Amino acid sequence: MAALNRRDFLKKFLKTGTTVMGAAVLAQAASKGLNRREPFAEAAGPEPEYEIYAAKYGGPLIRKVAIVLWNVGWDEDGPINYYVWAIKGQNGETIVVDTGASPAQAAARKVPGYVSPIEVLARVGISGNNVTKVIITHMHWDHVGGMDGFLQAYPKATFYVQRREFNFCVKNPVSQRKPIAILFDPLANKIVGDMERSERLVIVDGDYNLAPGVDLILAPGHTLGLQVVRVNTAKGPAVVGSDCAHVFRGYREDNPSVFIMDMPAWIQSFDKVKSKAAIDLIFPGHDVLMHQGYPKVAENVTRLV
Ligand SMILES: [Zn+2]
């Protein structure tokens, strides 16, 4: 299930010291299956365990419940928060999920209680060269807006985005039409677009083994190329679901937010995501309960598992 794209393959291969890559070498490697799976995944023993942290960078924002639960509760107000997540491994690996919103976008969109996600993450020791990987779940302003700051703050980090998301948001003119573009941070999308041939961006096609015990799972619907993250934890597999559902109730009630670009795809993704972990261990994109119902480890930071 772990697809390794050609660029990542080349990069990994080159790291082993091969400087000239002929077709014969590639064919030989392909016959060994190296272009299908991460080489280290083959050799790994039991999956290492990770902890998952929710870092709140904004909120609470009060809005109609029906916005986060497809048409249910237009007469009811409820709060949401804005988050990025961190995945910390026993093996020292630190992976950040999403880049949050930029200060400029947060101000323009009046996000209450905004704190830079970089500052929030630093409160639990996540900073600088610690961060090796950053997952872009999808390219909405509140999930990818922090690109500029993240590139500088985490100079060793490689960024991961799905090809469908990248191609649509960067290359398809339809994405620039008002109802879609209103959810973009144009600067962030330009930065990601400009990284197309950079070593720091890996464009992933479908499900992908990111590290031992951490998988990217393609789960379109909210956007055309949204990905969630399946993580091995002490409690078993968990999913950082980003906006596949905005709130926990979405998973329990089989109901997404109103921000859905492809409903049939979403329903299939929903089933796929729910097959990956127990429902209590599937974390949504914006639920205030991630900030209230879990151990607080620093200001604005909770440990989910
Ligand atoms: Zn969101």
Features:
five-stranded mixed beta sheet, 14 helices, 305 residues, alpha/beta, disordered N terminus
Question: What does this 3D model show about the protein?
Answer:
This protein has 305 residues and is an alpha/beta fold. 31% of the residues lie in helices and 25% in strands. The protein has helices at 6-15, 23-31, 39-43, 65-68, 103-108, 117-122, 141-144, 147-153, 163-171, 178-181, 186-194, 248-253, 263-274, 289-292; strands spanning 50-64, 77-89, 94-97, 131-135, 158-162, 201-204, 208-211, 214-218, 227-233, 236-240, 282-283, 296-298, 301-303. The chain is globular. The two termini are 25 Å apart. Mean pLDDT is 88; it is low at 1-41. The structure holds zinc ion. Residues 140, 142-143, 243, 285-286 line the site of zinc ion (ZN).
